[in-house]
Amino acid sequence: MARSTVRPHSETTRGTPVRTQLRTFLRTSDGVTIDAVYDPGAVVYDASRTSADHPVFVVAHGFTGAVDRPHVRRVARALARFGAVVTFSFRGHGASGGRSTVGDREVLDVAAAVRWARELGHARVGTVGFSMGGSVVLRHAALHPRQTDAVVSVSAPARWYYRGTAPMRRLHWLVTRPEGRVVSRYGFRTRIHHRDWDPVPLSPVEAVPRIAPTPLLIVHGDADGYFPVDHPRMLAAAAADQGELWLEPGMGHAENAASDALLGRIGEWVVARAG
């Protein structure tokens, strides 16, 4: 169960749209506080419709991101043209509590954000994750069935422990070495847990077959410097005919590489698929 320090008004729970931005700390099922922001989106201001009529996008950022980072706010603004948006900082990132487990316990952070979106009156929820967040929304949909109505994973890895590119070798240094964790804490405001995974969590490619029948979109750039195109192709193969793959020409990695046009296409896809 996720608990919010700001509870919606009684009118909101009956479907009245929330018309102002909200910011609060959510509490995950394992007791971590998560900094979260709700943007009602331009669509919700139609007084003739309730918040239940419009989807809400729950955005899961990449590693070292946070709710106030400019690239996360840009994604939120782009998706707000299609519905409400919930953004949040993963554990160990920004003002959230706890320490990052780099994709494992972060599933509980997404679950808390999705629950808050439902509490605010939205009947349709789409999760949109980038890089680490892309792997987390896949695992969330597999481990918490029926919590979401559509899933979009952008620039996600297919498998764990990948070190085949220079950026990923640097990232592994940050995560696994004490001096790397110091750099991450003070240079990127990201606090990383020192313990190794035990047990190793379900990998993204193992999670994908469990997502059906929830609609799934996999988005990846063919110029991604972190994860080459065999990663999205593995995910798409695991999804079979239950998923859709967009391999974007010239696109790099995650939020910074996602154009406003691409984000608009993602927004349209979620609106069409989320029921």
TrEMBL record:
Entry keyword set: Hydrolase
Single GO MF annotation: hydrolase activity
Position of the signal peptide: none
Residue span(s) of domain AB hydrolase-1: 55-156
Presence of the UniProt keyword Zinc in the record: no
SUPFAM superfamilies: alpha/beta-Hydrolases (SSF53474)
Similarity section: Belongs to the AB hydrolase superfamily. FUS2 hydrolase family.
UniProt protein name: Alpha/beta fold hydrolase
Naturally occurring in which organism (per UniProt): Streptomyces coeruleofuscus
Lineage summary: Bacteria, Bacillati, Actinomycetota, Actinomycetes, Kitasatosporales
